[in-house]
Amino acid sequence: MRLADRIEINSHVMHGKPIIKGTRVPVSLILGYLAGGMTIEEILTEHPTITREDVLACLEYASQVVAEEEVLVLAAAS
User: What ranges do the domains of the chain cover?
Assistant: First the structure.
């Protein structure tokens, strides 16, 4: 799956947050649903314009963001 086929960032839609392409459904909303325990089937019922592949693309997007994240260790203040 190519993320560019499913996830887009457009500064004119949802304040530039990543969304499912062709919708106004933010990736963060889908991730929040999953984190809250919703199943993919429940999400698809709630948002009939998206597909299972769209939900999986949200997970892949989050995985890539976390994989690219840099963590800086700060020295403790004395």
Answer: 3-68
